[in-house]
Amino acid sequence: MEELRILFDGGDLGEACAIAMAKTLGCACLVTDDIKERGPYYTLMKTLDSEVIPFTFYEILFPDYLEARMSENELLEVFDNICAISELPWDILSKLKLFIKRFWINPYNKNEVEWMRKFCNNKGITDPRARIAVLRDYINKAIKQE
Q1: Which pLDDT score is estimated for 12?
Q2: For the chain, which ranges sit under pLDDT 70?
Q3: Using only C-alpha atoms, what is the Rg of the chain?
Q4: How far is the C-alpha of 114 from the C-alpha of 62, rounded, in Å?
Q5: What is the pLDDT of residues 8-26, one digit of tens each?
Q6: Which residues have CB under 8 Å from 76's CB, separation 6+?
Q7: Distance CA 131, CA 123 (A)
Q8: Would you kindly state where each structural domain of the chain is located, as residue ranges?
Q9: 44 CB contacts (<8 Å, ≥6 apart)?
Q10: In this structure, which long-range contacts are made by residues 83-92, counting pairs with CB atoms below 8 Å and at least 24 apart in sequence?
Q11: Would you say 55 and 63 are in contact if contact means Cβ atoms under 8 Å apart?
């Protein structure tokens, strides 16, 4: 905790506590809505060789979709409900683009690409990009109907 305190000087130490707890408990990931620049999400993403992978809620939803645990419509409904309850002015297309960028195009570190590769292999997802394209098309159609 003390080594993390330096990262959050003068800020909310909740971020440091969240990271310290995840590391202490040996958690593989930390799901957080705190995505500000000095929050736990970006701190963990910028930490080389961090044993804890940070996720936002939407980065949990998209793998569920890839795994066919939820439909396009269910994903959109859950995303919209979480944003409404949390008063987050996020749009799903921009978050889908960030997800694609993070895990395929321009990751913060190679561990993210490796994590996604293993996830897809372990779950039998042979063409995740094609599945993401189907989702993107569905979202675009849903947006046009609004």
Answers
A1: 60
A2: 1-12, 38, 48-49
A3: 16
A4: 17
A5: 455 567 777 877 888 888 8
A6: 92, 138, 139, 142
A7: 14
A8: 1-55, 57-146
A9: 19, 30, 50, 52, 53, 54
A10: 86/33, 88/33, 90/58, 92/58, 92/139
A11: no
